[in-house]
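Hi again,

Forgot to attach this to my earlier email, sorry! This is the prediction with NAP bound. I've pasted everything inline since the attachment limit keeps bouncing my files.
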Amino acid sequence: MIARKLGPLDAEVPVIGLGTWQMEDDDEADVVRAVHRAIELGATHVDTAEMYGSGRVEQILGKALAGKRDRVFLASKVLPRNAERDAVIRACERSLRRLDTDHLDLYVLHWRGSGVPLAETFGAFEALRASGKIRAWGVSNFDVSDLAEAVGVAGPGKIACNQVLYHLGDRTIEHDVIPWCERHQIAVVAYSPFGSAGGFPSRSSPGGKALADVGKPLGATARQVALAYLTRRAFAIPKASRVEHVAENTAAAAITLDEVAIARLDRAFPRGPWRGLPTL
Ligand code: NAP
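C-alpha cells for the complex follow:
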C-alpha cells in the first residue's frame, strides 16, 4: 500500500483507508472481518467518530482492533456540541474507552459549530496531545475562510488534516480547499469517495462509461479508477463492510492514471463552479 506523510506528521499513512459511518447497521461479524482484511492489506487508516451509531461503531471497532491496535492509524471525531474545552476532553476519554485504546492517532473536529471559539477547542486538542491521549488533531468540513482562521489561531504546523467531501461527482474542493491545504501542509482526507451508499455512477451513465474505458487497459474496476483519481492529491477513506469491497478498494493504490486518462475523467466529471462545502 502506498503511504504518504499526513500533513505535518512524521507518520506515513496509507493513501486508502477505511471509513466506518453507518457500520452500526451492518452485520457485526462482517464489519470485524472487513476491518481485519483492511489491516492485512495495509488500509490501516481507520476513520470513525463518536457520532457514528452514537458510539456503537467505536465499540465494534474496539473489539475488532483487539490485539491489532498498534497496526492501525486510528482517527476519531468530536461533535461540535462537545467543542468546549472540558467537553472535548471528556468526549475523547469516552471514545478511548469505547475503542479500548489509550490513544488516538488523529482527533478531528467533525464540523465547525457556532458559539465555541476555535481557540478553546484547539486548546483542548493540545492538552490531549500533551497528555499522550492523541498524537495529532485536525478539522473537518472547513472551507478556506475557516482554515485561515484556524491556522491563525493554532499557528502553522499544528493542524494535521481537513476531512472533506470529495468524489468525482463533487470536485468543488479542487477550486481552493486543496490548493490552500497543500500550501499550508494540511492533509486533505476525502470522505464519501464513492458519493456514499448508492451515489456511485451506474455503468450505463456517461460517467460510468468513462470509468470503464479508463479502467479497461489498466485491468481496474470503476471504483478503483475513481480512488486512483482522488488519491493523487488526497487520502481517501472509503467505507466498506464487505471483505471483497475492502480488497477491491485497497488494490486501487497500485493504479496510476496517465494524463489521457485524467483528461477523460475531467471531461466526464466536470469540476463545475465552486458550490461550497456541505452544511452540516
Ligand atoms: P463511501 O465510502 O463513498 O461509500 C460507501 C458505500 O460504498 C457503502 O455502501 C459500501 O458498501 C459501498 N462500497 C464500498 N466499496 C465498494 C466496492 N468496492 N464495490 C461496491 N460498493 C462498495 O461513503 P461514506 O461512508 O459516506 O464515506 C466514507 C467515510 O468517510 C465514512 O464511512 C466516514 O468514515 C467518513 N465520512 C466523514 C464525514 C465528515 O463529515 N467528516 C461525512 C461522511 C463520511 P459496503 O459497506 O456494503 O461494503
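Residues 85-99 form the longest helix (15 residues). The two ends are 32 Å apart (CA to CA).

That should be everything now.

G.
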